[in-house]
C-alpha cells in the first residue's frame, strides 16, 4: 500500500482528500462542541445575572441583624438555598475575584448538587451563594414577585434607577403604565390581587411573567419579565456557519492539492515548449516516482535521445563538409596547373567555368558549415556572446560590400538614428548580408534597408522591387535548401540555405524573421525582429 501511494498520484490525491475531509469534520465537531459550551455558559450567566443582581441589592438594604431571617424566608419562598459567606472564606481565584468585583456572576454546575450562583453583595465583603437543583415555575413567580415589590417600594425616579440596574445585564424586564399586549385574555382578577401571571409562548419556546404594581400614591403599572427563551443547543445559523467553514476548508485543501499537480504539469508544459523552440538542453526536475515523475523521466530521456541524434547528425554534416574541402582544393590546384600548361583559349574558357563551379562549391560548403554550427550551438544550449551592436553601422558595411557586386541595383539605407541591440556582431552581420544579397538577386532595380524601434523590439526591413514571394510559399522558403523554383542553374544563384541561416540566427538571439509584401516597392519585404535593449 505504501508503494502504491508513492507511485500513484491519483491514489495519493484521493487519500489526501479523504484525510482532509476527516480532519475538517473532526475540527467542525470540535468547534461545534466548543462553541456550544461557550454559548451554554453565556446563557447561564445571562439568565442568572438579573436575579442575582436583584437578590444582592435587596439583601444589601436589609439590616445586618435581619439578614439571616430574610435568607431563611426567601430560601423557602424561592425553593433554593441562600447563604452569605465572606469573600475570604469563599477564596475565589484571581480571575474569579476580578469578575466578582466587576459585578459579574460565577456559575457552577454539578450533576449531584445542581447549580450554584455566586455574586458580591454591594458595599460589603460578603458574597451571596444561591444553590438550586433546577429552574421551576415557583422560582420564576417568586423572583418576579420580589422584583415587583422591590420596584414598588420606591417612587418614580428611584424606581427607574432600580429598573435600569436590573436591565443593565441584558435581562428582558420592563415597566409600563398600560397593560402589555401579550397579556391577551388573561384574568384581570389575579393581576388586581397582586399575583404573578405566567404566559407560555410555545411557538418561540419561551415564557413571560406579568405583575401589576400598586405604588403608593401613584397609578398602577405593569411589570413584564421576559420573554425568556429556552436554550437552543444547535441553532440553524450556527450549523450554517460551521457548514460554510467546513466547505471553505475543503475547498482550500482541494485547491492546494490541485495547485501542486497543476504546478508540476505547468513545468512539464514549459519544458516541452522550450524543447519545441529548439532548446534541446531543457530538462525537467524529477521530484518523485509517481506518474508525473515517470512522465518527467520519460521526457528527459526523450530530450537526451533527440539531442544526441541531432548532435550526431550535425557532427556528420560538419565532418563531411570539412572533408569536401580537401578534394575541392586538389581540383582547384589541378585546374590551375592545366591552365598554366595550356594556351588554348577554349581550354582556358572551360577552366574558368570549372573555377567558378569550384567557388560555388566552396560557398555551399561554407553555408552548410555555418548552418551546422548554428544548429550545434542551439542543440548544446550555447548562449550568444552578447555585445552592443550598432545595426545601422552593420547595415552600412553590408551595403558597401555588395554595391560593387550588383551594379545594376541601387542599394539604399533609409536615414534615421543609430539603433543598438545586444547580440553577436558576426552573426547579425551574416543575417543582414544574407537578406540584402537575396534581395539584390531578385530585385529589378532597387533595394532599401530600413531600421525602426518599437515598444519592445527593434525592426530591420529589407525591401526590393522584384516579383515578391507568393503567400503560400512564405513559410517554406525558410526551410533548408528550399527554392521558389526547381532550377538550380539559373543566373540568380543561391542554394536555399541563406534564409534558413537567417532564421537560426534570429532564433538564437531571441528574435524572429518574417516575409510579406513591400508597401513601397511592391516586391518582397523581409523583416528581422530583435528584442529591444533594456
Automatic annotation (TrEMBL):
<dbReference type="InterPro" id="IPR004358">
    <property type="entry name" value="Sig_transdc_His_kin-like_C"/>
</dbReference>
<dbReference type="InterPro" id="IPR003661">
    <property type="entry name" value="HisK_dim/P_dom"/>
</dbReference>
<dbReference type="GO" id="GO:0000155">
    <property type="term" value="F:phosphorelay sensor kinase activity"/>
</dbReference>
<keyword id="KW-0547">Nucleotide-binding</keyword>
<keyword id="KW-1003">Cell membrane</keyword>
<dbReference type="GO" id="GO:0005524">
    <property type="term" value="F:ATP binding"/>
</dbReference>
<dbReference type="InterPro" id="IPR050980">
    <property type="entry name" value="2C_sensor_his_kinase"/>
</dbReference>
<dbReference type="InterPro" id="IPR036097">
    <property type="entry name" value="HisK_dim/P_sf"/>
</dbReference>
<feature type="transmembrane region" description="Helical">
    <location>
        <begin position="12"/>
        <end position="35"/>
    </location>
</feature>
<dbReference type="GO" id="GO:0005886">
    <property type="term" value="C:plasma membrane"/>
</dbReference>
<dbReference type="Pfam" id="PF00672">
    <property type="entry name" value="HAMP"/>
</dbReference>
<dbReference type="InterPro" id="IPR036890">
    <property type="entry name" value="HATPase_C_sf"/>
</dbReference>
<feature type="transmembrane region" description="Helical">
    <location>
        <begin position="237"/>
        <end position="258"/>
    </location>
</feature>
<dbReference type="InterPro" id="IPR003660">
    <property type="entry name" value="HAMP_dom"/>
</dbReference>
<keyword id="KW-0808">Transferase</keyword>
<feature type="domain" description="Histidine kinase">
    <location>
        <begin position="319"/>
        <end position="534"/>
    </location>
</feature>
<dbReference type="InterPro" id="IPR005467">
    <property type="entry name" value="His_kinase_dom"/>
</dbReference>
<keyword id="KW-0067">ATP-binding</keyword>
<keyword id="KW-0472">Membrane</keyword>
<keyword id="KW-0812">Transmembrane</keyword>
<feature type="domain" description="HAMP">
    <location>
        <begin position="259"/>
        <end position="311"/>
    </location>
</feature>
<keyword id="KW-1133">Transmembrane helix</keyword>
<dbReference type="Pfam" id="PF00512">
    <property type="entry name" value="HisKA"/>
</dbReference>
<keyword id="KW-0597">Phosphoprotein</keyword>
<dbReference type="Pfam" id="PF02518">
    <property type="entry name" value="HATPase_c"/>
</dbReference>
<protein>
    <recommendedName>
        <fullName>histidine kinase</fullName>
        <ecNumber>2.7.13.3</ecNumber>
    </recommendedName>
</protein>
<dbReference type="InterPro" id="IPR003594">
    <property type="entry name" value="HATPase_dom"/>
</dbReference>
<keyword id="KW-0418">Kinase</keyword>
Amino acid at each position: 500500500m505504501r508503494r502504491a501511494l508513492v507511485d500513484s498520484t491519483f491514489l495519493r490525491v484521493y487519500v489526501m482528500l479523504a484525510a482532509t475531509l476527516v480532519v475538517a469534520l473532526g475540527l467542525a465537531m470540535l468547534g461545534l462542541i466548543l462553541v456550544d459550551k461557550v454559548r451554554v455558559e453565556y446563557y447561564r450567566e445571562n439568565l442568572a445575572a438579573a436575579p442575582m443582581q436583584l437578590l444582592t441589592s435587596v439583601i444589601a438594604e436589609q439590616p445586618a441583624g435581619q439578614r439571616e431571617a430574610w435568607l431563611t424566608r426567601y430560601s423557602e419562598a424561592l425553593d433554593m438555598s441562600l447563604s452569605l459567606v465572606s469573600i475570604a472564606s469563599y477564596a475565589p481565584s484571581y480571575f474569579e475575584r476580578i469578575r466578582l468585583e466587576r459585578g459579574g456572576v460565577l456559575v457552577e454546575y454539578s450533576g449531584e448538587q445542581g447549580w450554584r450562583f455566586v455574586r458580591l453583595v454591594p458595599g460589603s465583603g460578603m458574597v451571596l451563594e444561591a444553590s438550586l437543583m433546577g429552574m421551576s415555575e415557583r422560582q420564576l413567580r417568586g423572583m418576579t414577585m420580589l422584583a415587583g415589590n422591590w420596584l414598588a417600594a420606591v417612587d418614580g425616579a428611584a424606581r427607574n434607577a432600580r429598573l435600569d440596574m436590573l436591565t443593565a445585564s441584558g435581562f428582558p424586564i420592563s415597566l409600563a403604565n398600560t397593560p402589555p399586549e401579550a397579556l391577551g385574555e388573561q384574568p384581570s382578577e389575579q393581576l388586581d390581587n397582586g399575583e404573578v401571571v405566567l404566559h407560555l409562548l410555545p411557538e418561540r419556546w419561551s415564557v413571560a411573567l406579568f405583575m401589576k404594581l400598586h405604588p403608593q400614591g401613584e397609578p398602577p403599572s405593569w411589570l413584564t419579565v421576559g420573554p425568556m427563551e429556552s436554550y437552543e443547543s444547535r441553532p440553524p445559523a450556527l450549523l450554517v456557519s460551521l457548514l460554510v467553514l467546513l466547505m471553505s476548508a475543503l475547498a482550500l485543501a482541494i485547491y492546494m492539492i490541485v495547485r501542486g499537480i497543476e504546478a508540476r504539469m505547468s513545468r512539464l508544459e514549459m519544458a516541452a515548449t522550450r524543447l519545441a523552440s529548439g532548446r534541446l538542453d531543457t530538462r525537467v526536475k524529477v521530484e518523485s516516482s509517481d506518474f508525473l515523475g515517470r512522465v518527467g523521466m520519460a521526457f528527459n530521456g526523450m530530450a537526451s535521445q533527440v539531442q544526441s541524434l541531432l548532435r550526431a547528425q550535425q557532427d556528420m554534416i560538419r565532418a563531411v563538409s570539412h572533408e569536401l574541402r580537401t578534394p575541392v582544393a586538389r581540383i582547384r590546384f589541378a585546374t590551375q596547373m592545366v591552365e598554366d600548361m595550356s594556351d588554348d583559349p577554349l581550354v582556358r574558357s572551360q577552366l574558368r567555368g570549372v573555377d567558378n563551379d569550384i567557388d560555388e562549391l566552396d560557398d555551399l560548403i561554407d553555408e552548410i558549415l555555418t548552418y551546422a554550427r548554428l544548429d550545434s550551438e542551439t542543440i548544446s544550449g550555447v548562449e550568444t556572446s552578447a555585445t552592443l551592436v550598432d545595426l545601422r553601422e552593420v547595415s552600412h558595411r553590408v551595403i558597401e560590400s555588395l554595391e560593387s557586386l550588383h551594379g545594376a541595383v541601387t542599394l539604399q539605407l533609409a536615414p534615421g538614428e543609430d539603433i543598438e541591440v545586444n547580440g553577436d556582431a558576426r552573426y547579425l552581420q551574416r543575417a543582414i548580408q544574407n537578406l540584402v544579397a537575396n534581395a539584390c538577386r531578385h530585385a529589378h532595380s532597387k533595394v532599401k534597408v530600413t531600421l525602426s524601434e518599437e515598444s519592445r523590439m527593434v525592426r530591420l526591413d529589407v525591401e526590393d522591387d522584384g516579383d515578391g514571394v507568393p503567400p503560400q510559399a512564405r513559410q517554406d522558403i525558410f526551410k533548408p535548401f528550399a527554392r521558389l523554383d526547381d532550377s538550380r542553374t539559373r543566373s540568380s544563384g543561391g542554394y536555399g540555405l541563406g534564409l534558413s541561416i537567417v532564421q537560426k540566427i534570429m532564433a538564437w538571439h531571441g528574435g524572429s524573421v518574417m516575409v510579406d509584401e513591400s508597401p513601397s516597392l511592391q516586391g518582397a519585404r523581409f523583416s528581422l525582429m530583435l528584442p529591444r535593449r533594456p
